[in-house]
Design a protein that fits this description.
Blueprint (H helix, E strand, L loop, with lengths): L1 E3 L5 E3 L11 H6 L2 E4 L7 H8 L4 E5 L2 H9 L4 E3 L15 E5 L8 H14 L3 E7 L4 H6 L2 E3 L14 H10 L4 E12 L5 E3 L21 H4 L6 E15 L6 E3 L12 E3 L14 H11 L10
């Protein structure tokens, strides 16, 4: 059963009476909206790395919301598949961090993505596990462990499908950063295809990379990959010309790194990239006064 808030948000009825409710004022002031925020562990780091204030996390699991609020994180219970974009006038960035693969279908992801584009003013940021090489790895008798979670990872979305969704929303400016390349089957995220499904890292090893254990998963073919195979992807969809620049502080082929956003090169608010005085002068001489303040790309 659900309950509709006046702000236009649909929220599951709370089963834990000590959880503070989501209200209109919280939605109106949020600049960063993390959908599927879990227990809120990443929210403060997102504020620091992504360069915006006033984070708001949305999570439908009441137990995770209770943990988040007990720790002081601004996470509130709601169903993020039913949000009213008009309730979030200040949001610059919408974040989906390892979330969309849990939705029931590609069509449901498309609907949520369109909603995110309607909410965010500048960026929709998606971190997504790679499902790009399932067929290739299967041909070698291998699999990446997260690609075989029946009933859990139900939307095996690939990059070209994200790009098509964006085009359907009129968004054509994006960047993709692959994370942590596997060069061969010795990578610990690679299991033999015969390994049981739903292989997970134990809680004590939650931060470890990979989980292959020959005693549990059996022997696997030893091969070098003839194409790039990655752990995950960061995908940034830019909704305005004055969107921030994406930066990483380490080589992402070697690490599952986190991005930083640099807002220092934003324009003057007109949606056209600001040029240096010399560049404006040269363009004005070549193309006339209408070139002033504009750039290609």
């Amino acid at each position: 059963m659900t309950m509709a808030l006046r702000s236009g948000i649909v929220r599951p009825e709370r089963s834990m009476t000590d959880v503070r409710p989501l209200d209109r004022s919280l939605c109106a002031s949020a600049e960063l909206l993390d959908l599927g925020a879990g227990a809120g562990a990443r929210l403060l780091n997102e504020v620091r790395r992504l360069g915006v204030a006033h984070p708001l996390g949305i999570e439908r699991n009441p137990a995770k919301v209770a943990r988040a609020q007990a720790a002081g994180a601004p996470v509130y219970e709601a169903d993020f598949t039913h949000l009213d974009p008009r309730a979030f006038p200040a949001v610059k960035i919408v974040v989906f961090d390892n979330v969309l693969e849990h939705l029931p279908s590609l069509a449901s992801v498309d609907l949520v993505f369109k909603q995110a584009c309607a909410i965010a003013s500048h960026v929709v940021y998606i971190r997504h596990p790679s499902f790009e090489n399932e067929e290739y790895l299967a041909s070698l008798g291998l699999k990446q462990y997260w690609t075989d979670w029946p009933g859990v990872h139900t939307a095996h979305i690939r990059l070209h499908e994200f790009v098509a969704m964006a085009a359907g929303s009129g968004v054509y400016d994006f960047t993709v950063r692959p994370l942590k390349r596997a060069f061969g089957s010795d990578d610990p995220t690679i299991l033999p295809a015969s390994a049981p499904p739903n292989q997970r890292k134990p809680p004590r090893a939650r931060r470890a990379y990979g989980l292959y254990d020959e005693t549990l998963h059996g022997a696997k073919p030893r091969v070098e990959f003839d194409r790039p195979v990655y752990f995950a992807f960061d995908v940034f969809f830019f909704l305005r010309r004055d969107a921030p620049a994406v930066q990483y502080r380490v080589d992402t082929d070697d690490a599952v790194a986190r991005p930083f956003l640099d807002w220092s090169d934003r324009d003057d608010g007109r949606g056209i990239a600001r040029l240096t005085r010399r560049a404006r002068h040269l363009l004005s001489r070549a193309f006339g006064r209408e070139a002033d303040g504009a750039s290609e790309g």
